[in-house]
Amino acid sequence: MNPAVIRTVFRTVAIAEAVSWGLLLVAMFFKWVLDAEPLGLTEGGVPVAGPIHGGIFVLYVLSTLVSARAFRWDAKTLVLGLAASIPPFFTVWFETWADRQGLLAPAARREAPTSL
């Protein structure tokens, strides 16, 4: 597969995962703190935002695995990429870090990554 396409998909999904985290956090705030139903959404919108976030989370994990294989990441980078999916918004941090380190480029064209 074309490395440019893999890079674009990974970056897009990483950003979408962070946005969906934000939407889910807002929905949970409406549900648990305000006890409100914005826009007529039951339970603060959690039943809508939850599955959206879950689906994008799975896409992020899959795109991370594909990227690790395509760009020949070491195990430490792969684990870091997968772990970034858990805390809110860390996927954007990981994507930015990986891009700056040249980890989203074909292995033949990149230099050794610097430390975290």
Automatic annotation (TrEMBL):
Q: Which InterPro entries match?
A: DUF3817_TM (IPR023845)
The UniProt keyword set, sorted, is: Cell membrane, Membrane, Transmembrane, Transmembrane helix
Q: Where in the cell is it found?
A: Cell membrane
Name the Pfam families on file. Answer: DUF3817 (PF12823)
TM region positions: 12-34, 46-66, 78-94
Residue runs in coiled coils: none
Taxonomy, superkingdom: Bacteria
Gene Ontology cellular-component terms listed: plasma membrane
What is this protein's record name? DUF3817 domain-containing protein
Organism placement in taxonomy = Bacteria, Bacillati, Actinomycetota, Actinomycetes, Propionibacteriales
